[in-house]
Design brief:
The chain is α/β, with parallel strands linked by helices. The protein has 7 helices and 6 strands. The protein has one domain: P-loop containing nucleotide triphosphate hydrolases (Rossmann fold). A 6-stranded parallel β-sheet has the order 1-6-5-2-4-3, sandwiched between helices. Helix 1 crosses helix 7. The longest helix is centred in the middle third of the chain and has 21 residues. The chain is globular.
Length: 195
């Protein structure tokens, strides 16, 4: 049940997910939004790019797009992380481009929801060009958009339009998926965390 900010906004949603897969093309802000969500929720966080085999990283760094054959071992590692969390009931957030439906099918299951960070090619290219220390060159953005298959109505997830501050995108995700932030910490008179 994919929703954008539309009439389907008020559709009956399943129970809050155990695992969120923050997805989108490179440069869409997956790591930033996932990190902020994990901090607000107190959930485990995994950077999906860290699960790529070394061969994939080298290929992308050389400006070569990955093939499906390159992606399957990586997607299997991500699926294993997701399964570990859903099976144990441990909430978690993982980033993954998840560009095609067949990839998302490999990752989906009970308790899993996708958060698609969606924006224009121009806006994402500008963000991608300002990034430092990432193996994915901006020259591969075109191939990512060519591969992207948007979430379909029968997939559990939401589409979040980019263009605002990341904290506002995080608030929207939490509201739409009915996720509760951790309570603010309480401090004692010495400025230390209260018991």
């Amino acid at each position: 049940m994919t929703t954008t900010e539309s009439a389907s906004e008020n559709a009956v949603r399943p129970d809050p997910p155990i695992v969120l897969v923050v997805m989108g093309v490179s440069g869409s802000g997956k790591s930033t939004v996932a990190g902020m969500l994990a901090g607000r929720l107190g959930w485990d966080l995994e950077e999906g790019d860290d699960l790529h085999p070394a061969e994939n990283v080298a290929k992308m760094a050389a400006g070569e797009p990955l093939t499906d054959e390159d992606r399957w071992p990586w997607l299997d590692r991500i699926a294993a992380w997701i399964h570990l969390h859903t099976a144990s009931g441990t909430p978690g957030i993982i980033t993954c481009s998840a560009l095609r439906r067949v990839y998302r099918d490999r990752l989906s299951g009970p308790g899993v929801a996708f958060v698609h960070l969606d924006g224009t090619r121009e806006a994402i290219a500008a963000r991608l060009n300002s990034r430092l220390d990432h193996f994915m060159p901006s020259s591969l953005l075109g191939s990512q958009f060519a591969t992207l298959e948007p979430l379909e109505d029968d997939e559990n997830g939401v589409i979040v339009e980019l263009g605002r501050r990341p904290k506002d995108e995080v608030k929207e995700i939490m509201r739409r998926l009915r996720l509760e932030a951790l309570p603010a910490p309480e401090y004692n008179e010495d400025g230390l965390l209260a018991d």
